[in-house]
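User: Can you help me understand a structure? I only have the sequence.
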Amino acid sequence: IGGAALATTALTGWQYYRLRTDYRPLTPPKGAMCGIEAPSGSSECKGECQILFIGDSLVIGIGCPDRAEGPVFARHISRVAAQALRRRVKWKVLGIDGGDVETMRQSLLDDVRKAAANGQPKVTAVVIMCGLNDYKRLVQEGRMPSAFKKDLRLLIRSVKDIVGHDARVVLPALPVDRAPLFQPLFPMNVALYKVAKVWDHQKRLLSGEEQSVEFVAEPEHYDTNDWAIDGIHPSEKGYTKWADHIIKKVLPHLTKGESQTDNE
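Assistant: Let's start by predicting it. Here is the structure, written out as tokens:
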């Protein structure tokens, strides 16, 4: 058994090394990283709010074609929220390609402060896309899931200290273990599945420990067309499907919060 485990570990390590060596990253899409979505019938608008999207290559929209209007993931969530809330929704993407949670906290908080400064719409929700680059730190540094949880808690609290503690923080699970690039790579695909579940479980735990934090499990089904040509990032269709899944889970909390605000 020991020999088999050692061989499996060695093969997984070799597969990871080959991926890092052979993988050719996609170019980040060109386009706006902020915008405003308005409900149809703008005369019925109740005001304006804001959603921040913080994260890595996924929040930037790598895998999508260039769009002058910006990443489809952020735009789609904001558009649906605008219709449901009957408010103009300002959205802003704050992303670092290749960034882990610690890097996000060190590099993006000044941008969060600018987004939440006087004169800006109230931040209703913050979507944090993270985990993929933290998996790498397990391999490279032996950094455990407990450290990821600690870093993510610090990021959540730092963001809430800036935008307000009533803002809803959304932590989506990452479906990276379903990415086509990894499917034929046994046993690496099994190891990645287990790692992804453990890291996403830390997000689930934080949703129960921190105020106004929502964990959203990954969608159940993905099609071949949901993935970009690199086999890791979603395509435009995949991002749209993911956005639909997340906003359905989060909208009840946002509409409830808006109703309380209207009644104050």
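Now, to help you interpret it: The first strand starts at residue 34 and ends at 37. Helices lie at 2-22, 57-60, 72-85, 101-115, 132-141, 145-163, 188-209, 236-263. Let me know which part you'd like to focus on.
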